Automatic annotation (TrEMBL):
Any Pfam family the entry gives: Bmp
Residue ranges crossing the lipid bilayer per the database entry: none
Keyword Lipoprotein: yes
Signal peptide (residue range): 1-22
Any one cellular-component term (Gene Ontology): plasma membrane
UniProt keywords, alphabetically: Lipoprotein, Signal
Protein name stated in the entry: Basic membrane lipoprotein
Stretches the record annotates as Disordered: 28-48
Organism: Pseudodesulfovibrio mercurii
Classification via InterPro entries: ABC-Purine-Binding, PnrA-like
């Protein structure tokens, strides 16, 4: 028996040892797995990176012109200052084929939203928007829209009206000069609002209009202003991008009213005030909507003095206190939402009632305005 045990003892011991090793191994594996499962359950979910917004801007004139593009670029800078936004701009982009090329290149670069800031960019925007349905487009001052295209502008006519009150109060010749770019509703509406304001304080005033058919041409703008000064106008205003008309007025010893930004530094002895833009609030709010997903296409947005997008610059020291008080009172009404600039009765150039007493044109009628009010000397072409 001992001999038999001796013969089988070694394998049995080995089997016993293997059996004991196997029985002891499973708990060790289980203990090793449990902490791993616990750690995995406690691990925090990865944080989602905040969405960055890339915004492109296209300007029709140089950003250093102190005018229209300069004002838009100040708005772009407000967007660029946001920690989650980056911007790019192209300046002095002609309307037409050149703008189409620039729009397309910006879309290819992955811009989330592109702001086209001139009226003549409208058709190129509509064409390029169809090619890039995931890119959002905002067109300034136009009226065409699409699934990924909305348009925007501000009620600058409110500021024009206030500057008209000043001009009508300051003129001695009762002749006001208006250097204007193109005969489109945006410009015509501003001329009308300016004239309405001027004639409210001085019914004998006439507003003489000269068209330059350009947004930015300092030499041509100055020549146009000189022609109005030679015709006896003693207050010059403008819908142009440079301060050239302001300089012409000061050189002639006349008064002037600027546009787009505060132009008093270019004609400190002559500048009464300026109708100004403040695009920052609008641009910031728009890119915020892109970021949070609330931006919508096929919309029209028209910002007012209440929104802080349009205003007038500080009035010059030459403006009498009673005129300043009148203008500030009318501005307070506009700031409170009481917009009666185009409240009837309003007559057209032919002396016919174009807006009846007790009525006010809706935004569609204002956006399509193609006629001059009584008191304007000039044609809409």
């Amino acid at each position: 028996m001992k001999k038999l045990l001796k013969l089988i003892g070694l394998p049995a011991a080995l089997l016993l040892s293997l059996s004991l090793f196997a029985c002891g191994e499973a708990p060790q594996e289980k203990k090793a797995e449990e902490p791993a499962k616990t750690e995995e359950a406690q691990a925090p979910a990865p944080k989602e990176e905040p969405k960055m917004v890339k915004a492109g801007f296209i300007y029709v004139s140089p950003v250093g012109d102190a005018g229209y593009s300069y004002a838009h670029d100040l708005g772009r800078q407000a967007v660029d200052a946001l920690p989650w936004a980056t911007t790019k701009f192209a300046e002095s982009v002609p309307e037409g084929a050149d703008s189409e090329r620039v729009l397309r290149n910006m879309a290819r670069e992955g811009m989330d939203i592109i702001f086209a800031t001139s009226f003549g960019y409208m058709d190129p925007v509509m064409k390029v928007a169809k090619e890039f349905p995931d890119t959002k487009f905002m067109h300034c001052s136009g009226f065409k829209k699409g699934a990924n295209v909305s348009n925007y502008f501000g009620r600058i006519y409110q500021a024009r009206y206030l500057t008209g009150l000043i001009a009508g109060s300051m003129t001695k010749s009762n002749k006001l000069g208006y250097v204007a770019a193109f005969p489109i509703p945006e410009v015509i509406r501003g001329i009308n609002a300016f004239t309405i304001g001027a004639r409210q304080v001085n019914p004998d005033v006439k507003v003489h209009v000269v068209w330059t058919k350009t947004w930015y041409d300092p030499a041509l703008e100055k020549d146009a202003a000189k022609s109005l000064l030679d015709a006896g106008c003693d207050v010059i205003t403008q819908h142009q991008d440079s301060p050239a008309a302001q300089e012409a007025a000061q050189e002639a010893g006349a008064y002037c009213i600027g546009y787009n930004s505060d132009m008093s530094s270019f004609a400190p002895k002559a500048n009464l005030t300026s109708a100004i833009w403040n695009w920052g609030p609008m641009y910031v709010k728009t890119v915020e909507a892109v970021r949070d997903g609330s931006w919508q296409g096929d919309q029209s947005t028209w910002w007012s003095m209440q929104d802080g997008v349009v205003d007038i610059a500080p009035m010059g020291a030459m403006v009498p206190d009673d005129v300043k008080s009148l203008v500030n009172a009318k501005k307070a009404e506009l700031m409170a939402g009481k917009d009666t600039v185009f409240a009837g009765p309003i007559k057209n150039q032919a002396g016919e009632v174009a807006i009846a007493e007790g009525s006010t044109p809706d935004d569609g009628a204002l956006l399509g305005m193609d006629w001059f009010v009584e008191g304007v000397v000039g044609t809409t072409n």
